[in-house]
Design a protein that fits this description.
Blueprint lengths: L1 E7 L3 H12 L3 E8 L6 H14 L6 E3 L13 H4 L21 H11 L4 E5 L4 H9 L7 E7 L14 H5 L1 H8 L5 E4 L1 H4 L3 E2 L1 H10 L1 H10 L5 E2 L2 E3 L3 H8 L4 E6 L1 E3 L9 E3 L12 E7 L1 H13 L3
Parallel strand pairs: 1-2, 1-4, 2-3, 4-5, 5-6, 6-13
Antiparallel strand pairs: 7-9, 8-9, 10-13, 11-12
Helix pairs in contact: 1-2, 1-10, 1-11, 4-5, 5-7, 9-10, 9-12
The chain binds beta-D-ribofuranose and calcium ion.
The site of beta-D-ribofuranose has 14 residues, from helix 1 and helix 6.
Keywords: Glycosidase, Hydrolase
GO molecular function: purine nucleosidase activity
InterPro entries: Inosine/uridine_hydrolase_dom, IUNH, Ribo_hydro-like
């Protein structure tokens, strides 16, 4: 099994990613930390707790950064709804977040682990940047970071920037320069592996988890005829099925200023960084395999 910690901002696609991470037997989910992003951190924390409660999972949730390091905060409620996870009536008797900040909880969980941790951020990287700045010793016990965010030359927030990196570009630049191996799971694959309407319509026929995911996914504001992007779920798919995704090693820099703020610039030719690399960038994905796997994962739940 893979020991995983998710740092997340649920969020519709985050909710689906958390669903897979909680339930897949190959993943040993140790901790969920939350960050401001799609909606405020108070809401993303409640949404994480709703999912933990829905699955009666014994997974601690720690609440994290309320704001990006430097940039002003803009949410994505226009895509994810006011609550961040609309459309389904979750149980209301929710567990509480643990009594530690996300950064403290991350430090403790990473240092206590007998195996190296795989960190999976599906929101902006504020908590992780703070963690690396305050407790750099954790880096030695991190296997790698498999992060949703970024792209090579396209954006979904501005024409240059993807939302998670745009939200806290300074944090992203710290994380990409931290010396920890990173897999960049960006728009290059997440806009390709859309969950088709065919797949979405099958979800409620599978089980209550499928109904829950269906009922929230259909509220995603970023809906096209071809389907709905499940951006964050691609991180979990990559962990379990790397053979379905093509990666290319390169150096990633993050623009922290100007009109391209939040852009992840890939040194594809190796000319700027002399061939050195800091990331494996996901460049292609088998979309049919992603859809098939998504439905199989849900079918296996309850
Ligand atoms: C990312 O932005 C958020 O709105 C989604 O949850 C995902 O993490 C996609 O750009
Ligand atoms: Ca997210």
């Amino acid at each position: 099994t893979i020991k995983v910690i998710m740092d997340t901002d649920p969020g519709i696609d985050d909710a689906a990613a958390i669903t897979m991470a909680i339930n897949d037997p190959e993943i040993d989910l140790q901790l969920i930390t939350t960050v401001a992003g799609n909606v405020t951190v108070d809401k993303t924390t409640i949404n994480a707790l709703k999912l933990v409660r829905f699955f009666n999972a014994d997974i601690p949730v720690a609440s994290g950064a309320k704001l990006p390091l430097i940039k002003h905060f803009e949410d994505a409620a226009r895509i994810h709804g006011e609550s961040g996870m609309p459309g389904y009536d979750f149980p209301t008797d929710l567990p509480k977040p643990i009594n530690k900040s996300a950064v403290e909880a991350l430090r403790d969980a990473i240092l206590a682990s007998d195996e190296k941790i795989t960190l999976v951020p599906t929101g902006s990287y504020t908590n992780i940047a703070l963690l690396f700045s305050e407790y750099p010793e954790v880096k030695d016990n991190i296997e790698r970071i498999v992060a949703m965010g970024g792209s090579l030359g396209m954006g979904n927030m501005t024409s240059a920037a993807e939302f998670n990196v745009f939200t806290d570009p300074h944090a992203a630049q710290i994380v990409y320069n931290a010396g920890v191996p990173i897999v960049m799971v960006g728009l290059d694959i997440t806009m390709k592996a859309l969950l088709t309407h065919d797949s979405i319509e099958k979800l409620p026929t599978l089980n209550e988890t499928g109904k829950m995911l269906h009922d929230i996914i259909i509220n995603d504001g970023d809906n096209s005829d071809a389907g709905i992007a499940m951006h964050d779920v691609n991180t979990i798919f990559y962990l379990l099925h790397p053979e379905a995704i093509t990666t290319k090693a390169m150096w990633i820099d993050v623009q922290t200023d100007g009109p391209a703020i939040g852009e992840t610039v890939g040194d594809i030719r190796g000319a700027y960084h002399d061939g050195k690399t800091n990331a494996d960038v996901c460049v292609d994905i088998d979309s049919a395999a992603f859809n098939k796997w998504f439905l199989e994962e849900v079918t296996a739940i309850k």
